Fold these 4 entries.
Entry 1:
Amino acid sequence: MPGKFRNKTDEQYWTLALDGPDEQIGDVQSCHAWEALLIDCDDLPHAHAIVATDSQGFVDVETFDTQWQAMREWTARKLVHEQPGGCCAESADEH
Ligand SMILES: [Zn+2]
């Protein structure tokens, strides 16, 4: 799936996310987004990032300077997926 990026750096984070994120959740078909958590990215301006891709292929990258900030945002985003009635709620998970 070709991604659509705001800039070259976003594309680099996205490539890393496809390679194997530290955590990931959701998908572009049944969710609002596929989201991936990256911790300790080498050779990139910010060490930590969350990469979100929507069904149109648009890639949104949010970067963090500390792992704590990244984990706090990641937890909040996971909650959106996993809340009752959410796209990744337990009951909707049997497919
Ligand atoms: Zn979801």
Note: The chain has a mean pLDDT of 91.
Entry 2:
Amino acid sequence: MMKQKEIPFSIPFINEREIKEVVKVLRGKWITTGSEVKRFEESVREYLDVSTAVAVSSGTAAMEIALAVNGVGPGDEVLTTSYTFASTVIVILHRGADVVLVDVEDRTFNIDAEKIEREIKENYEMTGSGLISRKSKKRLKGIIAVHFGGQSADMKLINGIAEKYNLFVVEDAAHAIGSVHHGIKTGKSRNFVCFSFYSNKNLTTGEGGMIVTDKNENEQKLRMYSLHGISKSAIERYKNGLPFYDIVFPGYKANLTDIQAALGVIQMEKLERITELRNRVANWYNHYFKDVEEISTPFIKEYNSSARHLYPILISPSLRQRRDDFIVDMRSKNIYPSVHFIPVHFHSFYKNFVNLDGKIHLPVTEDLFSREISLPIFPGIKKSEVKYIVDVIKDSIVRFR
Ligand SMILES: Cc1ncc(COP(=O)(O)O)c(C=O)c1O
């Protein structure tokens, strides 16, 4: 097989329109949070038909602010998945709370609602002051559900559990702008839904994020948390009256700039197209892998439409030991796949900081991780490149069998 030119894991879908808009901001007088951020927030708010959209500096900041507004602090526990980027867990630790990890479903990589309920029933007691852990005596306050790879977690079940036990839900939708769940766009929810616009995300502003919700009574607090807890934004202080302000509580410094937002406004206009193109690429992969027994392609539930942020394949258990060799083979052929995710409980920060080394075992998470490879997926990848990637994998299978 002829070696092709490099196929990276992801390439942003940016063209002259974004460049022009960013240059326009740079030529203007105001480059930090201002009118472009407002436009960007408004376009996301309208697209999702929600009451509130607050732009922030990253998906991580969005989640940390969402936890803060939900009142998470020392003495609390938050339940989530280990099959995620570590920031989902780090934000809980930053709030001084403890993390409870629950295993995922075996086909979607998403947190398993049944296992959430089992964990609660086995280890918690409902008291006058909420769900209290029989082991730690701390209070379980909420759940962070991650929409892995662009497919929504089972929010009907998860929201149902949250209601039953009086928990909040934060949605880590870093991968999921453009996805649809039970006919509703991910983001249209009374939970805080946190998007990431990191450079490889479906919609990018280089770095950036947004908290959206249909619960508008929280907007002012979200905004204040994103800017030190200041009572007035920089542009309000600049434009209206005297430059004084009050700091009501110690918030974060997590605002988005107009430079980034200008990019986001154009990316929002392209979002439907981006989602369509990513789904087209996923369908090419599905087609070329159709008869390849050793590879499982992503499973999408019938009531979900995925934003296809990732294309995670699973190699058969018989070839588990060769997962890394598949990656080495691809790299030697100029293909740059990735692995999502190294489970959070495998990282030393987690083992050492939370002092759980060897004490936590999540069989489905660990099995999936040992067999997963994320293949390049982005709007501009060609059909011939997808075929080449699949052919390289097929060659490796023949050698590894
Ligand atoms: C599942 C998940 N959650 C959260 C984040 C954090 O987003 P950000 O990099 O914008 O902070 C990422 C990735 O970047 C992610 O993949």
Note: The radius of gyration is 22 Å.
Entry 3:
Amino acid sequence: MPLSRIAQFSPLSIDHIQPQSLGGNDDLDNLALACRRCNERHYNFTAGIDPETNIEVPLFNPRQQAWSDHFIWSVDGLLILGTTPWGRATSNRLDLSDDRREEPFIQNARRQWITAQLHPPGDDPQQRIIHEPTDGADGWL
Ligand SMILES: [Zn+2]
């Protein structure tokens, strides 16, 4: 089993890129693996606001776009930073760095993963955790 699945505290869920509530189907190109948190934050949103431009853009599509074209890790490995309007809007909508709360659970978990040498993810997409980058292979982010 890939490390990306073992390192989760609960099974990854199947998320619909185009939400079922908006007519999304079960075709593989509309499905993405997601941690529960990302799945819940994605909800039925298909777009988000780029905080730099305040323009609404479609969310990152892990089936059609490459993660590394839209996101980077902060140097300390704790934050996912959007580098394009799509990346920034997605990072903002899904709160990928959990930086809105006093207790940033994601950042705390990433610190532990770094200590365990499980993070940041390497070049192998199978080693990547879903709310972490997957380079578009099968996950959200
Ligand atoms: Zn996630």
Note: DSSP finds four helices and six strands in the chain.
Entry 4:
Amino acid sequence: MKKSTKLFALLLLFFFFTLCSGFSSPYEGEVSVFIIDAGHGGKDPGAQGFELDEKDINLEIALGVGAKLEEAGREVVYTRKDDSYLTLNERCELANSVIVHKSGYPLFVSIHVNSASSASASGFEVYVKNDDKLIKMISPEMNPMLAIKYSAYKPSALNSYKDERSKEVAESIVKEVKKTISDIKIRGIKKDDFFVLNGTWMPSVLIELGFISNERENNLLKDSSYKNKLIDAISAALLSF
Ligand SMILES: [Zn+2]
């Protein structure tokens, strides 16, 4: 092969790989930092059941899951570690500005307990954002360092990559909970316009642990061994990312 032809082939190969990497999901590989969000807190108790406030269960599970991830050597950022009040916007701002020290991508996990007017409503479910909803993705105002990394992507592409990965995380959580806990109804994966799912640019899921308005599930959520099973299942699922 002539020297110039060789150079041309090399250049072609270089552009091919650059093009390929430009179009592959930035949410591949290992999660570099888990952002664990215990829903509600402080003056906002969340749903209230039989002598239980949602905010307390959310915090207990969030801290338990975070501890398991940290034990495994993974980086965790908490939106709250105590009974403090944060607005939904403050939670998103914190997540969006998180510093990522390693390669990989951040993952946002919000933890909640459900409530319904019907006392019979029960079960475990995980929410992801609606995939037909185009949200504002990362901007330099949110996170100047990471905005550069993600600037090559169109917001619509980032939206679909976020949705794709969020769904995989949700599927894994549901699968682990199904495997670990036999006495819970699995409602599956749902899509909805939750503020924290639409307000964070990284893959994100919102877990509803059970219904505080259902006396049986309310009592399960008071039981430490049951809560430990939830912590084990959720953290095992997250550790696979
Ligand atoms: Zn809630």
Note: The helical segments are 3-23, 54-71, 88-96, 144-150, 155-180, 195-198, 215-220, 224-239.
